[in-house]
Amino acid sequence: MSNLDLKPQLSTCGGRAAVAAEPVRELITGRPVLLGESTEVRRLLPSMGRRMIGAWCFVDHYGPDDIAEEPGMQVPPHPHIGLQTVSWLREGEVLHRDSLGSLQTVRPGELGLMTSGRGIAHSEQSPCEHARLLHGAQLWVALPDAHRATAPAFDHHTALPVVTAPGLRATVILGGLDGAVSPGRTFSPLVGADVMLDSGADVTLPLDPSFEYAALTMSGGAIVDDVPLAPGSLLYLGCGRTGLPLRADTATDLVLLGGEPFEEKIVMWWNFIGRTSEEIVQARSEWMEGTRFGEVHGYDAPRLTAPTLPPGPLKPRGRVR
């Protein structure tokens, strides 16, 4: 899971100052970004208007793509610090390799959770023999300062808890929802859930009013708090909600993201999350020198080269632009 932008912006985000303390409806549309050799994604977070939802700081939605005659996802080895990556598939498979020696195929409905901590490298690719369609979301969670130096790890969970109601089935990917708690390890209060709505569903999903939330439509046509959402769009919902009204005229799949507003300001650049630009410069240097991150074995292509850092001092810009 990588940010392959050749000119990534160095920016500071986080902190509570710009968190909406009341319910809002802020629609975010994705911008197209090429991921690896052949997969185009819609990047929804960070966006021009918003950079975090709780500890969630990066959201890509891709597919459904017909890759029957294509290689599919091909993301060479690259590094991460200061974050967790969450792989969530609706269709297809992704083969994960990392510098810990992990080798795991992640399939629809399974949680692939990588904690970078002080540093890890990994690659992602569609297996040689793969399904026709590829569809999913790639997500990052910022680690709080107290846990940024934790040991790197990769966890794979095939059994996740489910919340049900008439017309609704929600798989808890990470964190907790309505009393159901994912086995995935977290370091701050948050939730990620895949919500399936039947055609004609009209339900209210219980929420924690201390969290801020957003909804990403994966497929179908959700109507979230009376706002129609086309596939690949993200609706930021703010805080102060005890429930979220959901309707669907057709079978619909959406991902609910939420969490306690992240107090700390973070610096994001390329695939790194730190607290200062000096940390980012050091991490880039150590990746280019081949130290700190280890080796990813088995991916048949060179590892990624880090982009050139932008000139000039870091300009803090907060959670929103």
TrEMBL record:
**Region: Disordered, residue numbers:** 302-321
Q: What domain of life is recorded for the organism?
A: Bacteria
Which SUPFAM superfamilies does the entry mention? RmlC-like cupins (SSF51182)
Q: Which Pfam families match?
A: Pirin, Pirin_C
Question: The Pirin N-terminal domain covers which part of the protein?
Answer: 41-141
Q: Where is the Pirin C-terminal domain?
A: 193-292
Give the protein family.
Answer: Belongs to the pirin family.
Q: What is this protein called?
A: Pirin family protein
Q: Which organism is it from?
A: Streptantibioticus ferralitis
The taxonomy runs: Bacteria, Bacillati, Actinomycetota, Actinomycetes, Kitasatosporales
